[in-house]
Specification:
Number of strands: 8
Strand order of the largest sheet: 5-6-7-8
Shape: globular
Largest sheet: 4 strands, antiparallel
CATH architecture: 4-Layer Sandwich
Strand content: 25-35%
Number of helices: 2
CATH superfamily: (Glycosyl)asparaginase
């Protein structure tokens, strides 16, 4: 149960998502860069509080990445280190998940400056 948003008629009510609701289990992350490739940002959404302190990593003129679902916090420093070497985003993700025994529980994505971004959605 979650408190209903403030507003007329919602003062003392609570709502809960139906058990069949797929939106209750939705997490997402997005990585983006400015047109000139110098600035990067990451946005995340999850049912877990404080996820923004754990999931995203970004460095100006290097790139950005996120590890969602069962986050592997080692992806942040390792991923940025790989991006600093100039490795393509797809190769960064391949390196990260190859060494991770829990890779089937991860949802990482990365974006390098400059270059295309990529997302790794391991087979489940």
């Amino acid at each position: 149960m979650v408190p209903a948003p403030p507003g007329p008629g919602n003062r003392a009510r609570e709502f809960s998502w139906p058990s069949s609701c797929s939106l209750c289990r939705v997490t997402f992350s997005i990585v983006a860069r400015s047109d000139d490739g110098r600035l990067h940002g990451v946005a995340v959404a999850s049912k877990f509080l404080g996820v923004g302190a754990l999931v995203p990593a970004a460095e100006a003129e290097v790139g950005a990445l996120a590890t969602q679902a069962h986050a592997n916090l080692a992806y942040r420093p390792q991923g940025l280190a790989f991006l600093r070497t100039g490795l393509a985003a797809a190769d960064v993700l391949a390196e990260l998940v190859a060494a991770d025994s829990g890779r089937t529980h991860r949802q990482p994505d990365a974006l390098r400056a400059p270059g295309p971004g990529d997302a790794a959605r391991p087979d489940r």
